[in-house]
Amino acid sequence: MSLHSTPILYLNMGGEMLYVLRQRLKAQRVDVDKTIQVLDDVTAALLNPKILTSIFEESPMVGIPQLRSTLECVALSSIMKLDKSSMNKLFDLMIMMVKYQLTAATGPREVILITLNHIDAMRDMVSDVNAQKCVTLVHQMIVDFYGCLTFDDVWSARQSCLKELEPYNIRVSILLRRGLQNEDASFNMTPHKYNEKYTEHGNSLAIMKLRDVSPETCCGGSFGTFGDRKTLLGKNIYLPTYGMTDNTNPQRDSQQFLKDCGAKAELSMLAVQLGTEETSYERPFTLNLLSNEDEENANNVDNDVDAQGNRVKRSDSKPKVNDDYKAKLDVYANLFEDEHEGLKRSMDLLDLLDEVE
């Protein structure tokens, strides 16, 4: 079994989780302030330094059940609530989308480019500057970690991931609609623009390191922070612009959405600072992943009212349940890491994060 598989599964599944949450938040017309908070909080939890240093250790792959436990805590670390049915649906989508992308990958470089597409989307989703710098740091960790591996090492990591995902065969409506999946849950491997043809050229590339081979040798695809990945795999399939020609900007919808959200958030913050708006705590809301219909009471604010009819903040401020989920993330990190090297790398990454704040 490969010792380099866990980051691929964790980051790609985490990226798909953010795609689904963003799509549902928008479809259910959740308040933009709450949307920004959820995307920022979930991304920050997903990129928890202790978790990252653990999954980037060279160690046997972490199984799906343990990854799910960690990612459930990530999903519930913000003000959002998901019931059991919605959580199951969320993980079905995450697992099958990652399984499809890894199955469709045409070579080791594309496996890394798929992961970087998810990281690019995280950078576009978050509005907090420090969170964006953290995403950039994770991008560099991916390039450093996998750039030192041979083509065969990365391809073996992909094979290990697919073996772990093999028991999961679920029909996903969006894949069915796009003709990428059959009714028996198998995938249609339709040709796409990027094609490394690794099965044909693997003998000459197998023992070479990814960083030592020119991108043009493998159909291009940049590992740079803002480079062109070339491959469509790993991008947000829920966007209306997904799969359009190069003359369009696949990230336009996402960028405009965050621009609108960020503008409103800044205006709200300015109003608070000027004393023209009273701050109040809003309770967690429920996100329904199974329907486009909003529940009328899902997003209600639960504030007390004083004798003059003014809102006052409740004393039971932040819900304990979400603090508990955040605390569990550190516990799950301990299940991954090595006693000595893991601690050393954790401290190094924490120092880097301190520098960007």
Features:
357 residues, two-stranded antiparallel sheet, mainly alpha, 13 helices, disordered C terminus, two-stranded parallel ribbon
Give the helices and strands, then pairings.
Layout (H helix, E strand, L loop, with lengths): L5 H22 L4 H15 L2 H7 L8 H12 L4 E2 L2 H21 L3 H18 L3 H19 L3 H15 L7 H5 L20 H8 L46 H22 L11 E2 L17 E2 L5 E2 L7 H17 L4 H16 L1
Parallel strand pairs: 1-2
Antiparallel strand pairs: 3-4
Explain briefly what this protein structure is.
The protein is mainly α and 357 residues long. Helix content is 55%, strand content 2%.
Termini separation (Å)? 38 Å
- Shape descriptor reads globular
**Helix/strand order, N-terminal first:** HHHHEHHHHHHHEEEHH
Give the biggest sheet: 2 strands, parallel
What structural category do the secondary elements indicate?
Answer: mainly alpha
Helix content: 55-70%
How many domains would you count in the coordinates? Answer: 1
Share of residues in strands: under 5%
Helix run count:
13
Which runs of at least 5 residues are low in confidence (pLDDT < 50)? 246-253, 276-282, 291-321, 337-357
Mean pLDDT: 78
What Rg is obtained from the alpha carbons, in whole angstroms? 21 Å
Q: Biggest sheet, strands in spatial order?
A: 1-2
Number of strands: 4
InterPro entries: OSCP1
Protein name: Protein OSCP1
Organism: Harpegnathos saltator (Jerdon's jumping ant)
Pfam family, one: Oscp1
